[in-house]
Task: structure prediction
Amino acid sequence: MAVIRQLVPWALAQCVKLLLLLAAVSVASFGLMELSPIDPVQAYIGADMMRVSAEQREAIAAYWGLDQPPIEQFGRWLTSLLQGDMGTSMIYRTPVTEVLAEKFTASMWLMGTAWLLSGLLGFGAGVLAAMKEGSWLDRVIQWVCYTLASTPSFWLAIMLLLAFSVWLGWLPVGLGTPAGVLREEVSIADRLHHMILPVLTLSVVGISAIALHTREKLIEVLHSDYVLYARAQGERGLLLVWRHGLRNIALPAVSLQFASFSELFGGAVLAEQVFAYPGLGQATVEAGLRGDVPLLLGIVLFSTVFVFCGNMTADMLYRILDPRTREVKA
Amino acid sequence: MIRKAHTFLSFRSTSWSARRLQAWLSVASVALLLLLFAIGALWAAGQPIVTALTLRNLPPSAAYWFGTDWLGRDMLIRTLQGLQLSLQVGLAAGIMSAAIATLLGVLAASGKWADRVVSWLIDLFLSMPHLVLLILISFILGGGVQGVLFGVALTHWPSLARVIRAETLQLRQAEFIQVSRRMGNNWLWIGWHHMLPHLLPQLLVGTLLIIPHAILHEAGVTFLGMGLSAQQPAIGIILAESMRYLSTGMWWLALFPGLSLLIIVRCFDRLGHTLQRWTDPHRARN
Amino acid sequence: MALLEVNDLSISFEQSAGWLRQRYIPVLHQLQLTVDAGEVVAVLGASGAGKSLLAHAILGILPSHARITGEMTYRGERLTPQRQAALRGMDIALVPQSVAYLDPLMPVGEQVRHAVKQGNKRERQRESFRLYRLGEEVERRYPFQLSGGMARRVLVAAATASGARLIIADEPTPGLDPDVMREALGRFRELADVGCGVLLISHDIASALTVADRIAVMYAGTVVEIARAADFAGDGTALRHPYTRALWQALPQNGFVPLPGEPPQLGERPHACAFASRCSAATDACLHEQPPVRELRRGLVRCVHAS
Ligand code: SF4
Result:
């Protein structure tokens, strides 16, 4: 219970921090968008530009409230935002909240699976490298990790596509669902089939950071005084790593993984683009390319909350699980 | 005492001189690669890109190492030119980012309030996915080179700013700075004469470590169609175009440009890490 | 038959110099030592003299690039790496210096239970906790929640619970409150009195003398003298080696005579008596070679001129 009592003020502080952050992000992005040379009306009309008269343009601007002064626009946007209404996406022609919900659900499967996979694989590789510190295996793992960290993720995606879809023909070239099939008819198997390559790309991209971090930490632990003492007590090999190593590196590793939501989201944007996976990443690109201001603002706010949640969870795990921060010194 | 014994661990297999040799070798090999690339880029810059319809879609050969595209253009030349562009933008953005980092880092070390504001700014910039922020900034600036440049510069400074802040704080406490202060020198003078020389190595390493990320992000946004314009021979553009020809089996359009980018980025990364280990052997490890 | 016998033990560390060449940095040379059951033998020496390496060598937990020569026997049988691995924690236990040697994220009760190799783990752990006046609630505490004295008792409790016959104890960290220190040393005496052999590694003569039966004095990587505790008396005439005598005379109650100079760095191969540069009795004879070990008045000494 003491834990909960300690967590409450912290959680409140976090909420205040998030609100401040969101306020700053919305003011800044909204303000900057006003200054931008992009014309939202044109974005709405898209390719039909030629066929739209000046009157029609004005009508559209009035409809979206674009003829009002910026402060007023921001005020309107903010009041509706506070009521849970983020406006209407210009390209999807549906409320931004709906677009976000639908696209994020799709992305969540992708990111969630990749997040888990990269975490497990990276952790395993890191542990292996640290246990064999200095061996060829360690060197290979490090080399691969550093190389992966320098690899453009979209190029990796293209290479996977080339290998598995074009050459081997095992997996479909793109699209989260097969073209021409109604959403309801898509079987889970189909969907999984289309998820394999994006997930693979995203997982491989995520391995490097966690593996190098885990290796570093475990080596530090294995050279620590307490492991020396454990060895003096006859412990060794896997048992030793299991008892003292994993106990001491698990928390930092899991925390790091939670703190990596920012890179995960960025990776998803690129991977979804290559594989034409209809998720939030692709929506981000679309919104940016076609000037869908409400959607872009919505995504910016949403991704801020997403990253914030990851960082907060990382922090919270330490507070709940590490005995050193959990209890006051006796 | 047992700690003492463990200092012998650092003797392990590589002595100081051997490690230094290794570092030299790694720097030398990276420098050699970059030099080769520079020569290649110079050569490519002089080569006009010819569209030759008779030479379309050729796989790699002795005459066309990287093959040709659907217009018969030599992919080697295009790749080298693209790399050069990506590199220029990446370097410029990295340096701008380092400048922002230095400014804010030093500012943060100057007072309590400034520190709070700067750490809040850092929080703010770390709380959005880099790529989303980049897309946003590019969008706001209407795309193009300046969009990417500012986007990358504005997203990559936080970690270096933290280093500079810590270093400046430490320096301010240092004996010789205190003495200089008591001798009546003002902060500006001290900053220029005493602090800058100490910050310089950190700054150099920090910038070098930003550059690989800057290049990768530049390529990423350009690939998404929000960076450099389609007329420019950037690597991101080349790779985005190659996507359209993948199903026809023209693998070389994607493989070589991307691989070259990977190698260049890896070179900068390696250089940065080696120098980091050099200037700061304690904090070196990652 | 001695419980532990160390004969001519030398340790060096491998270091690669340049590309292919390798160099060995000697750290211990030709060290002699015995520990009998029921006795406390203190190994005394300034930091850097190689005391902890000796402890690690006996346990077989030196880093992999250490090269070891000489012979160690336990109960008359050679200590091979295999035998060391089997005896570690079973027959030979280490009592480390401080709480930093406990896993920070594991309750101390569990750590002591891991040390128990025979019998019911929980019972033995509880038993040894009771012996050292550690309440049951301490079991669930983490190392950072222990006071200095408690941590010390937990570490000794672990060694006791393990049932080891030879205890190698690193002296508690300096700076511990004197009462706690005295109590901690008293524990080792008790362990010896019930039949264990205790090798106490220390850098403080005064405290070591309160519990030790014999004292081995280390200087520059080797044992220069092994004396009985009784030899440390008066102005030190019963002592055999000039270094030991200088240490004894440097104590406040014995005149506070400082010993000038610095001990040599680890890693130098001795061609002369390592103490020669600081020794007031040094002659040319001392510079020819490292003085051999001699037996003298039921002790050992490595000095040409000792009598
Ligand atoms: S051998 Fe000589 S120099 Fe060494 S301690 Fe004895 S008298 Fe002194």
About this structure: The two ends of chain C are 27 Å apart (CA to CA). Residues 178-193 of chain C form the longest helix (16 residues). Chain C is about 25% helix and 25% strand. Chain C has one domain: 4-16+23-91+164-301.
